[in-house]
Write a structure and sequence with these properties.
Blueprint: E1 3-6, H1 16-20, E2 25-28, E3 31-34, H2 41-53, E4 59-61, H3 68-72, E5 77-80, E6 84-89, E7 103-105, E8 112-114, H4 121-129, E9 135-137, H5 147-154, E10 157-161, E11 174-176, E12 182-183, E13 188-192, E14 201-205, E15 210-214, E16 218-220, E17 223-225, H6 235-244, E18 252-255, E19 261-262, H7 266-283
Parallel strand pairs: 8-9, 9-10, 10-11, 15-18
Antiparallel strand pairs: 1-4, 2-3, 5-6, 6-7, 7-8, 12-13, 13-14, 14-15, 16-17, 18-19
Helix pairs in contact: 6-7
């Protein structure tokens, strides 16, 4: 197999393939590109997983990969089996969510799907063997994708902030009101982080110290980012919401877009966030009194 090329006419530069298989894919101009063919079975598998996750099916191969079915069976993919047991990347990114990633938390109180992947029965069957889905938590209105299909498939309760409810999500089962925070049991906190959208909410999984940020905060190839160019509500409020995160205890940021971040400890996390917020306040000082 080898990913021979990426279709520049369909690639939306969502970054999915580049962070899933950085050994194979890179960025050229404003598009992803194949810069090196896989040289090991591990690299080959990651390339196939990226191919299956590409929201626009832009990754091309010269011949159909004979082991594509085996690659399909690897989803959901463990994020880090040793450090983050029970946390999985669902793959199958949706163009409706501009290629955003979706994650699954295996939880004794019922599994939690974070944002919506592209619906495929193959993935649904794998998730079913892992205990199904109790909650579908939607971080914000952009990354809802095939939420209705997943809700029907698993009879799960969808969660979305009321400020981000639109026609396509009017029937979500749980609409968050106000500024929170809210809890899902003792170990999960939902943190209101307005800015990217008015109703953006992050999920803090306390046992493993993970903050799932949706489009609120991410790591890109050029560094920590709030992706101002895609802001739909208020950049200054988004910076304020990043500052609010300093009080919470987490070591990982797992975003909907971009690269995951692992901090050494609480102090390093705060040092990085404080520097980022200070830089942004200086940049947008005219927006503050």
């Amino acid at each position: 197999m080898s990913p021979s090329s990426i279709d520049n006419h369909t690639c939306i530069d969502c970054d999915t393939c580049r962070w899933m298989a950085p050994q194979v894919f890179t960025r050229v101009g404003e598009m992803s590109a194949v810069y090196k063919q896989p040289t090991s079975s591990e690299d080959r598998l990651k390339a196939l997983q990226a191919l299956l996750s590409c929201p626009t099916s832009s990754i091309r191969t010269e011949v159909p990969p004979p082991d594509i079915l085996e690659a399909q069976k690897t989803f959901p993919i463990p994020v880090d089996e040793k450090k983050l047991p029970g946390v999985y990347h669902c793959g199958y990114h949706s163009e409706k969510s501009y290629g955003a990633a979706s994650y699954l938390i295996i939880h004794p109180g019922g599994n939690i799907l974070i944002d919506s992947p592209r619906f495929t029965e193959k993935l649904a069957k794998e998730i079913e063997t892992m205990g199904g889905v109790r909650y579908l938590f939607l971080t914000h209105k952009d990354d809802v994708a095939d939420h209705a299909k997943w809700a029907t498939r698993f009879s799960c309760d969808r969660i979305l902030h009321s400020e981000d409810v639109e026609i396509c999500t009017a029937d979500v089962e749980m609409k968050l009101e106000g500024n929170g925070p809210w809890s899902l049991g003792d170990d999960i906190m939902l943190v209101h982080a307005p800015g990217h959208t008015e109703g953006t909410v992050c999920l803090l999984y306390k046992p493993l110290k993970i903050l799932f940020t949706g489009d609120h905060l991410m790591m890109t190839e050029s560094g920590l980012s709030i992706m101002e160019m895609y802001n739909k509500y208020s950049v200054p409020k988004q910076v304020d919401s990043v500052q609010k995160l300093i009080q919470f205890d987490f070591d990982w940021i797992i975003p909907g877009h971009g690269w995951r971040i692992e901090f050494k400890d609480f102090q390093e996390k705060n040092t990085v966030l404080e520097a980022f917020v200070r830089e942004k306040y200086n940049q947008y000082s005219s927006s503050y009194k």
